[in-house]
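Standup notes
- HV: blocked on the assembly model, inputs below
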Amino acid sequence: MSGVPDILAEVAPRRSYFLGLDFSTQQLKAVVVDEKLKVLHEAAVNFDRNLPEYRTNGGVKKNGSSITAPTVMWVKALDLLMDQLKITGLDFQDISAISGAGQQHGSVYWRKGAEKVLSTLDPTKFLFLQLANCFSVQDSPVWMDSSTQSYCETMEKKLGGPQKLADLTGSRAYERFTGHQIAKILTEKAELYFNTERISLVSSFGCSIFLGSYSPIDWSDASGMNLLDINSKEWDSQCLHMCAPDLKEKLDKPVVAHTCLGPISSYFVERYSFDPSCQVVAFTGDNPASLAGMCLEAGDIAISLGTSDTVFLWLSGNPTPSLEGHVFCNPVDPQAYMALLCFKNGSLTRERIRNVYANRSWDQFDALLNCTPPGNYGYVGMFFDEQEITPKIQGTFRFDPSDQRIDAFEEAATEVRAVIEGQLLAKRVHAERLGFRTGESCRVFVTGGASNNKSILQVLSDVFNAHIYTQDTTNSTCLGSAYRAAHGLAVKQSDAFIPFNEFMADRRPNFTLLCSPRVEAAKLYDSMAARYATLESSVLTQL
Ligand SMILES: Nc1ncnc2c1ncn2[C@@H]1O[C@H](COP(=O)(O)OP(=O)(O)O)[C@@H](O)[C@H]1O
Ligand SMILES: O=C(CO)[C@@H](O)[C@H](O)COP(=O)(O)O
């Protein structure tokens, strides 16, 4: 036993379930866990497939470098998701607390008067019909957007350079970070900005619907805006003023992520028979929630292979942000931080190559990957279909064994192995720059859609020379949200903060060892990582 009192049993002697949600790029997902935090139900609504009327591709709409998603689509997805959960036989009365997550950095603009609508929703009607007119900006900018370069330059310049901004907010200026997206809306659509009474992140937008009033933004997701002082955990007034007037009021005070914000809105009580005392715990970013779902410990590294690929780890002690990657406030420990690297060209790039070379089939893709040896006979590829984040670069770069740039590989299998090796070597090279050391004693925890693919995971194991672990569900974001709901409720019922790792001690999820590194392949990737780093630098200097 951990010595932590079983607060869940004390507060809720009957069934006590927890609902975790994830408003991610391509889908809205949910997981329900029981009092032991074991998964009972999972559900998902895919935006392209289940809501074709919004005409998204991969959950988003592209207009050059501006990338958005229709805000009301996420609301309609929630209507569908709740109905899906209902038909699993779930009794919503059993849910003691809810939390959730959202794709990071994306923003939602609530029109003046929208909170009134939120708090007086008619339970006989769908949410999307009632909230359709509540958004002053119809299409929310999302994390894939890269249209705010000039705003980024301005902020870095005014703050005394990129490192100064990173020291303050955890990151240098990034185009997808919300402060710059808000500045762009003010410049291009001022009347919409002035008609906005509240700006939410995707996470706090989802939370607001469950609360029936505006939810504050939690510290962890707030760290992805270039607006929060990650040391004081307050908005930085200089950064706010640089982006837009009255922004402090439109954002409200950020809160620590485990905050219980209040009971669920009467809409959900009346429409779905939730218990009126069911608590809503602040939602956070999808990567922070995933860190909670994987119960990461110091020394472990997590890799999420979702729409984006991300690499993240728990940071103890004082944060030392650099010009690459991000430092976010930790979602489960108010004193700690997490480091994150984001790669925009993740699953969608792999999918494109699968569609062209492997007949849209992951089985055929795997067969091609497995018929080529580690090292790909010396061929290397970098595939940045969209402008990459780490590092900032776009285009396709293929090299032969003597490092000469070539236009195409001769074999489909070479292209397939090149995309996987290139993506995974990039993760290793950039994680090492953050101070991470690969090696047999290191454990890599994987999650996200592509972590279903064992052939890809074997390459990951060899490239990182590390053992690869997965959970029973590849959806650690939802799981982390459900854990955070349970933890937030326990903290509310307790007199003192309960460390998350202690709280989870008797409830930790199962991890399965899926792949172990092969000695010869791992050796080969040591030298290939150095070669990849040199090739990447040469590409960057030639831009
Ligand atoms: N067997 C597989 N091999 C490789 N990739 C896969 C496989 N199954 C699903 N995926 C990828 O998973 C992606 C979705 O991952 P997910 O974590 O659900 O994304 P998000 O949370 O960003 O919406 C899809 O774009 C798909 O390419
Ligand atoms: O921009 C980032 C992190 O900084 C992305 O990781 C988004 O948070 C999207 O997440 P997925 O939908 O790919 O999980």
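- HV (later): unblocked. The first strand starts at residue 17 and ends at 23. Residues 24-25, 103-105, 143, 176, 224, 285-287, 306-308, 310, 340, 342 surround 5-O-phosphono-D-xylulose (ligand 2) (CB under 6 Å).
- Next: hand off to the docking folks.
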